[in-house]
Fold this sequence. Notes:
Distance between the termini: 41 Å
Largest sheet: 7 strands, mixed
Number of helices: 12
Number of strands: 12
Strand content: 5-15%
Helix content: 40-55%
Shape: elongated
Amino acid sequence: MLEPTLLILFTLISVYYLNFILRIYRGLGNLTHSTVKKKLSEEFISIIIPFRNEEDDILKNLASLEKQNYPINKFEIIYVNDSSDDSSVDLLLRNKTKDNIRIITVPDKYISTAHKKRAVKFGIENAKGEIIVSTDADCTYDPEWLQSLVNCIDKDTGFVSGPVEFEDSEKLFSKLQKLEFAGLVITGAGLIGINEPIICNAANIAYRKKVFNEVKGFSGQMNLSSGDDEILMQKISKETKYKIKFCLNRKSIVKTRANNSVNQFYQQRKRWASKGLFYPDKKLITKLILIFSFYFSLPILIIIGFLISNKFLLILLLSLIFKIITEFLVLKKGTDLLFNSQILKPFLLAELLHIPYILFAGISGVFGNFTWKERRVKR
Length: 379
């Protein structure tokens, strides 16, 4: 009785995961390409950049933002200093050339937890704009970046997720990260395409301030160090009638550097995984657990395949084959829409590393502490 029950269980888990990937593929086909028009928003825009100890990148970020092809009287740039102890603030003050740029500092007594979210929240409270655009201080932008995001916002839109890409590098580790990161962006885009917004990246998002206030902003999650992107998007989707959009335009791509070391990569992914169990939608948490169960089942299938029956090894083989095929189809479609197809070159190696990476990062993110911006964050 045990063997047929396990066969059915593992088969259903595999089918669920493969169906999930195919739905992402379908969602990508539902997205509408956004062209860069010179139509200006009637609403004022506030770009908020929280930062902590970004002296190596902040001038590049500043120069990139100052080159935006958008009227200076229609938007402001707010750099929010979150307890930096390097030269970041001084560099900004000495090098900014535009009158629409402000540098503000989060007061020491202003919310002791949440770190980045407290900086974003403080920035929003000091912003003049009706539209909030959030990004990171280690990013660079196409001159049409802001215009491309604005084009996606109409009266029915509450939140826009934009694409983020790692910069090119000849290092194999960076190429693997670039592909993996593109996969996350493509997955998020496909899920928005089927009206199931789950993941996005805070380096490139836009939303209405009144909608942020309507869902009470980051309330209920200030104990988390992350979530200023995904959890906010999910709240807007669930609690309001506003649309969630993905900005499908290469001009809207925000670029940032890949992690320099395996430890940096590990800490970043642990931080991202740490918020999964705190998503407001409990059904969504169940779905994510089922997806993780697929990855967890793969090494289990090897063990019981040798201990119980080689039928489980057949399920494992078929699961891996269909996983590789469907994930490649999704990545190929996504790269055709947004990225350079050259990033697919290390695909097979990435697939080999994908399973242990998901298992390790997922478990560590749920149960472990992590380091972020020289801060030790406890769960």
